[in-house]
Amino acid sequence: MTSAATFLSALFGGARGARAGEEFEIAHSDAEWKSILTKEQYAILRAHSTERPFTSALNTEKRKGLFHCAGCGLPVYSSDAKYDSGTGWPSFWQSLPDAVGMREDSSLFMTRTECHCRRCGGHFGHIFDDGPPPTGKRHCINGFALTFAAAGA
Q1: What is the pLDDT of residue 25?
Q2: For the chain, how far is it from start to end, CA to CA, in angstroms?
Q3: Is 140 tagged catalytic?
């Protein structure tokens, strides 16, 4: 990648993949991730892309159940913490315990809290301070980064 392309990628696209020193329980080569994930999942989970709002079926998912990382299957969010934020992305006021890792993301001329799967490092989205009680947090998550398993299914 040229220096200009590297600069623009860092400026507009944020970090790519695991950062220096980060290790995850589940790790694959880039080629392996591309063979495991769909094109959309790869773009979000591994290349930190963002899906267009209102494009994921999980945005309107209302059944009881668990949302899992599409990369490694780790349960990361419960339907009990899901709410309609009106943003066009699945939103949760908290993750399941020990499911989500966080890091600072300084792309797009602002500092945000990026959240990712603690087991495989897959990018989920960002966490904001404009959510409902009891946490006041909004985990704004890319639906293509998740799979859903209905309770009792």
Answers
A1: 92
A2: 46
A3: yes
